[in-house]
């Protein structure tokens, strides 16, 4: 059996490791555009901040691939997949497969607007991006897009001593993760770090002669030498599209719960797919490390003829701002639009949280100030535990004593401090 | 497969397990550095120790952004190459049992490693609330009842 994997990211590598667990004989060949080994993008902001060295982001050495008996064709773009002939083309060679795993990931978007090609425009995706930014010696930086990557990048550059602006088009930062109230609390924390945050502003262009000199929005001009684009990603699905695989409405490769694509013998996982949300069951993009790994496990198992099903996407994003943990789990009100949502909320000096419930089920949770009990809340969201059942459990000596860890989530479930 | 099994009615909350853990694992003498935590159920007058259950498919492993958590191929313990940890705390949220714990000294997240097979907390527990026993025995309802044990659910691998 020969499995070809396109992609050397979280998804591709997890799939390879999982196949190896199932079989020591299966031939595995991995393709990637880049020629360096696996790294963790999640650690890049820490490098930019100067907290960890760049080499710490690498998760594998070439020896690790050898030990796992993964043949690597790195630095090679896959140009074509022929699903009928079960083969792909990379360089000028053809490679035949029994199973194919697409783990082609995603790419940050740099919009085609005036000045976005000037020297001084960057994205944060690879270790090289970080090197380029550091070599550029930024002093005044604008980060466009205040998702979690934008926020982490802003904090990181601030830590390097830059003057930092963070621009968000929506009315709040991290709009897909938090509702307005907690987002505003986090924004205030960022402002206390001296990051200048502007929401509800649209970036219209970048100005400069040879270099970035100013960033233009629909409301102001900001003097800067660095612009970092963190305003969304595009899934790498061109190859899949050309091969005739179905692409969904959100721009990701369509897969079923076995991570199987629309054509036989082909599986997909990671940032490049769209898959059902654990709560709504509707197609969603996850774009998270953990989802990429779990999806890869499922793809690999099914590829080897072992049954495994993907539970669905459920996002968990955590930030630490000035040492204060902020966490968003599941859906926010934006994600729950159209559902009648109950909000259990609490605010005190050092803790804010809100728990969102629909039809007696916990659907989302946002908290600033503590991580206590978040593990059991996350488990409830994943399992769809009814809120009423959780409350009963917490009042019943017999049950709670055998599930004592739920105690930490008690305050959220009852809305107490 | 031997695991720490918790007899939930026996613990009197003395906290010795935490101190012993902090001493052996962090060189400290304070519950904040322990990998075993005691949940106080004040309403019911109960104290219940909670510790890593070495899940068969550990959510912490999936969530680790540095891929440093792994199942030991021989013992099936959930272990960490903690020197590569960046302290992002993703695994902490992923753990259903609050058993992936923040180590404030090294700013990393750690879990119980069963002291390599001779858990010191169990050795020092004066009330018998912590038992190091075969998981299949803990999962066996009849034997459990015969022994008069009410066991923390996770420590019998959720099987009933
Ligand atoms: C700065 C940053 C911070 C992040 N922080 C977090 C975080 O804290 N928590 C979290 O959960 N997630 C985080 N993420 C998201 C997480 O990193 C991604 O979800 C994850 O890396 C996706 O992995 P992947 O394998 O699907 O895709 P990718 O890592 O994008 O890998 C895609 C692979 O496919 C290859 N490829 C694509 N097309 C071709 C082709 N035609 N031919 C050959 N090779 C091809 C590429 O070369 C690459 O190797 C962060 C991302 C970034 C950028
Ligand atoms: S730390 Fe938590 S999730 Fe990880 S193996 Fe232990 S109990 Fe399971
Ligand atoms: S805190 Fe450390 S062990 Fe936990 S997910 Fe982050 S890097 Fe992995």
Describe this entry's structure for a reader.
The complex is a heterodimer of chains A (417) and B (160). Chain A is an alpha/beta fold. Helices cover 26% and strands 29% of the residues of chain A. In chain A, the strands form 7 sheets. Chain A has a 5-stranded parallel sheet with strand order 3-2-1-7-19. Chain A has a 5-stranded parallel sheet with strand order 9-16-10-11-12. Chain A has a 5-stranded antiparallel sheet with strand order 22-23-26-25-24. In chain A, helix 1 (10-22) runs parallel beside helix 8. Chain B has helices at residues 16-26, 59-63, 90-94, 120-124, 135-139, 141-146; strands at 2-6, 37-41, 46-50, 69-71, 78-80, 101-103, 108-110, 130-134. In chain B, strand 4 and strand 5 form a beta hairpin. Chain B is globular. The model of chain B has no long low-confidence stretch (mean pLDDT 90). The interface between A and B is large, with 38 and 34 residues. Flavin-adenine dinucleotide (FAD) binds next to helix 1, strand 2, helix 2 and helix 8 of chain A.
């Amino acid at each position: 059996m020969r499995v070809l994997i396109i992609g050397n990211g979280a998804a591709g590598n997890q799939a390879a490791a999982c196949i190896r667990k199932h079989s020591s004989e299966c031939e595995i060949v991995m393709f990637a555009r880049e020629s360096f080994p696996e790294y963790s993008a999640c650690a890049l902001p820490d490098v930019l901040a100067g907290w960890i060295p760049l080499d710490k982001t690498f998760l594998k050495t070439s020896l690790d691939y050898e030990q796992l008996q993964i043949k690597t064709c790195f630095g090679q773009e896959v140009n074509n997949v022929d699903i009928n002939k079960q083969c792909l083309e990379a360089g000028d060679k053809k490679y035949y497969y029994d199973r194919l795993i697409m783990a082609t990931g995603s790419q940050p978007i740099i919009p085609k607007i005036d000045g976005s090609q000037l020297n001084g425009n960057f994205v944060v995706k690879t270790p090289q991006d970080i090197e380029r930014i550091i070599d550029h010696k930024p002093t005044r930086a604008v980060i466009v897009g205040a998702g979690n990557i934008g926020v982490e990048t802003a904090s990181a550059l601030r830590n390097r001593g830059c003057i930092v602006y963070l621009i968000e088009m929506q009315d709040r930062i991290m709009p897909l993760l938090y509702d307005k109230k907690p987002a505003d609390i986090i924004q205030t924390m960022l402002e206390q770090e001296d990051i200048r945050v502007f929401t509800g502003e649209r970036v219209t262009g970048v100005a400069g002669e040879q270099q970035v000199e100013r960033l233009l929005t629909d409301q102001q001009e900001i003097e800067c030498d660095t612009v970092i684009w963190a305003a969304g990603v595009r899934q790498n699905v061109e190859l899949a599209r050309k091969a005739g695989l179905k692409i969904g409405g959100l721009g990701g490769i369509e897969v079923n719960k076995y991570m199987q694509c629309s054509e036989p013998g082909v599986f997909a996982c990671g940032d490049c797919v769209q898959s059902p949300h654990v709560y709504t069951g509707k197609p969603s993009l996850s774009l998270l490390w953990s989802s990429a790994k779990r999806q890869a496990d499922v793809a690999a198992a099914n590829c080897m003829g072992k049954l495994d099903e993907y539970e669905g996407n459920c996002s968990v994003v955590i930030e630490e701002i000035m040492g204060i943990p902020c966490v968003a789990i599941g859906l926010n009100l934006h994600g729950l639009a159209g559902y009648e949502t109950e909000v259990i909320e609490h605010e005190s000096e050092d803790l804010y949280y809100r728990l969102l419930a629909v039809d007696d089920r916990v659907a989302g949770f946002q908290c600033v100030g503590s991580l206590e009990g978040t593990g059991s809340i996350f488990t409830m969201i994943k399992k769809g535990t009814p809120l009423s059942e959780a409350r009963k459990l917490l009042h019943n000596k017999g049950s709670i004593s055998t599930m004592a860890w739920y105690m930490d989530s008690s305050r959220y479930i009852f809305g107490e401090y | 497969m031997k695991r720490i099994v918790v007899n939930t009615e026996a613990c009197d909350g003395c906290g010795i397990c935490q101190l012993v853990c902090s001493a052996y694992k962090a060189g400290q003498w304070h519950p904040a550095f322990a990998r075993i935590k005691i949940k106080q159920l004040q309403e019911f007058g109960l104290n219940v120790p909670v510790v890593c259950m070495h899940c068969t498919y550990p959510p912490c492993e999936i969530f680790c952004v540095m891929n440093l958590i792994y199942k030991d191929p021989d013992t099936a313990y959930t272990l960490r190459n903690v020197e590569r940890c960046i302290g992002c705390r993703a695994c902490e949220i992923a753990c259903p049992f609050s058993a992936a714990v923040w180590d404030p000294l090294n700013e990393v997240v750690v879990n119980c490693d069963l002291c390599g097979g001779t858990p010191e907390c169990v050795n020092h527990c004066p009330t018998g609330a912590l038992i190091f026993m075969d998981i299949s025995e803990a999962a066996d309802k009849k034997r459990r009842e015969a022994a008069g044990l009410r066991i923390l659910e996770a420590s019998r691998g959720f099987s009933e």
